[in-house]
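Hey,
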Amino acid sequence: MAVTPDVTDPAARLEDLVDTAHRIRNAIESVIEGKGDVVRLTLTVLLAEGHLLIEDVPGVGKTMLAKALARSIDCPVKRVQFTPDLLPSDITGVSAYNQQTREFEFKPGPVFANIVVGDEINRASPKTQSALLECMEEHQVTVDGVTYELESPFMVIATQNPIEMEGTYPLPEAQRDRFTAKVAMGYPEPAAELEMLDVHGASQPLDKMEPVATTAEVAALIQAVRAVYVSPPVKRYAVDIVAATRTSPDLRLGASPRATLHLVRSARAHAALSGRDYVIPDDLQDLAVPVLAHRLLPSLEAQGQRRHPEQIVGELVRRVPVPDAA
């Protein structure tokens, strides 16, 4: 049975965090084979109070990963299938007139849940995509001048197909900037794909999944992550990495101050999942590409040379001096 972590003892909180994260990770990996790094990043974003964007071609398990995380936690989960005719009110909710009471009543949309799975988010118009802006940043929804608070913890896991595919729209810059990290599933290794044939061929593993953590546990673990120590030199290192994207000639749009916050929050979660109560430069280096690359726009020259933001960020990280002391 799940036990709520002891919030009074930092060492106990860290031990409980690692234990609970291990349970969640094992549950997800029972469905998603051979993607340990992707699963770890997903947990990192969850504990950093962030949102995850999963981009890849159809059929590689994007929606499966999102559903597996949602089912591993005993909390309200809602799924939205984004389509070209989807309206903003279909996501946030709408005020409907009640003829009996002769008053307008608010009908909550699917964002009123702890985990919201947005499937193929870039198949909806930018207007509909923007309905998530307030939700993701401020954890609230405003409809007809009335503001409604969302559940806590709150996480959006969105999947999207590459924008070159037919019937997709590119996410607006403001929308991409609200996603803490972006990850690509990639094709499975042959051994993992063979195992998938055995596991998924006869039944649906998602149907057998049971929650291994509670909402209260996850909320307590998020509090524990907030207490992970980040030294001044490491904070400065994070600022230097982000600042390098703003001056790079290979980029016409650098990372925002929000990206710096997301990078440090994610580094705290990354350190905690490694059993440490302090952040080291390696944490920032490991997360720089998934946290920063999707927010950047390459220059025309970089595009002509087929240099992607992920590659540019990796080069910038190697150039930024690493602090001597953490």
